[in-house]
């Protein structure tokens, strides 16, 4: 049953590429590379979330990266304010 969901994601991604790719000109090489990277990254993330729904999402990664930075900024702000 999960493969039906994955194939649905693949169909949507293929339709997105078929719609957007012809609108990009030959000179838009960087945009095409970025678009392709985002499509592939999104597809991998969607498939992983179908098979492992308990997997932490991207917001957990952002929290893990910025949480130490936030504590450092808060300490610096408290020291400045007195």
Q: What fraction strand?
A: under 5%
- Helicity range of the residues? over 70%
Structural class: mainly alpha
How many distinct beta strands?
Answer: 0
Brief summary of the model shown:
This protein has three helices and no strands. The chain has 82 residues and is an all-alpha fold.
Walk me through this protein's architecture.
The chain is mainly alpha-helical. The chain has one domain (2-81). Helix content is 80%, strand content 0%. Helix 1 packs antiparallel against helix 2 (29-51). The longest helix is centred in the last third of the chain and has 24 residues, at 58-81. The model has no long low-confidence stretch (mean pLDDT 89).
Task: Sum up the structure in keywords.
mainly alpha, 3 helices, 82 residues, single chain
Topology, element by element:
Elements: H1 2-20, H2 29-51, H3 58-81
Helix pairs in contact: 1-2
């Amino acid at each position: 049953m999960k493969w039906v969901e994955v194939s649905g994601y693949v169909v949507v991604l293929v339709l997105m590429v078929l719609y957007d790719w012809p609108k990009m000109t030959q000179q838009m090489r960087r945009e095409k590379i970025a678009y392709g990277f985002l499509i592939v990254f999104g597809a991998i993330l969607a498939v992983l979330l179908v098979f492992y729904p308990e997997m932490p999402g991207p917001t957990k990664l952002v929290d893990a990266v910025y949480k130490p930075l936030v504590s450092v900024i808060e300490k610096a702000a408290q020291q400045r304010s007195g």
